[in-house]
Amino acid sequence: MKRAAVSTIKATFSACLAKVKAGEELLVMERGKPVAKLVPIPKDASGEATAMQLRELSRAGLVRAGTGKLPPNFWKMARPRDKRGRALAALVADRAEGR
């Protein structure tokens, strides 16, 4: 865990915040004594971070919120055809990248 003085954090807040977003913890020091700890919000903790991100994407018009309900005949519907194999190629490429 890295330590930073309050004055340093005030002067470089954006850089400190970027480090925290990247997963690093930061101990805030005042006159050599710890006074606070900046930690990233876990992505899976009760889904809050994910829900917040989805709301932002929805406001930007990049996604549409679903109703959460499937049509009654969903599982009986025919699968879409992919004659050129694009879906399989995308899946293989994603797995090769480690996603």
Overview of this protein structure:
It comes from Nitrospira tepida. Belongs to the phD/YefM antitoxin family. This is Antitoxin. It is built from 4 helices and 3 strands, in the order E-H-H-E-E-H-H. It has 99 residues and is of the alpha+beta class. The chain has a domain at 2-38: 3-Layer(aba) Sandwich (YefM-like fold). Strands 1-2-3 form a 3-stranded mixed beta sheet. The radius of gyration is 22 Å and the shape is elongated.
What structural keywords apply?
elongated; 39% helix; 3 strands; 3-stranded mixed sheet; alpha+beta; Antitoxin; YefM-like fold; 99 residues; 15% strand
Using the coordinates shown, work out and report the CATH topology of the domain at 2-38.
Answer: YefM-like fold
State the fourth-level CATH superfamily of the domain at 2-38: YefM-like domain
Biggest sheet, strands in spatial order?
1-2-3
What's the story with the biggest beta sheet? Answer: 3 strands, mixed
Order of helices and strands: EHHEEHH
Termini gap: 28 Å
Query: Which spans of ≥5 residues are poorly predicted at pLDDT below 50?
Result: none
CATH-scheme architecture of the domain at 2-38: 3-Layer(aba) Sandwich
Beta-sheet strand percentage? 15-25%
Would you count the extended β strands for me?
A: 3
**Oligomeric status:** single chain
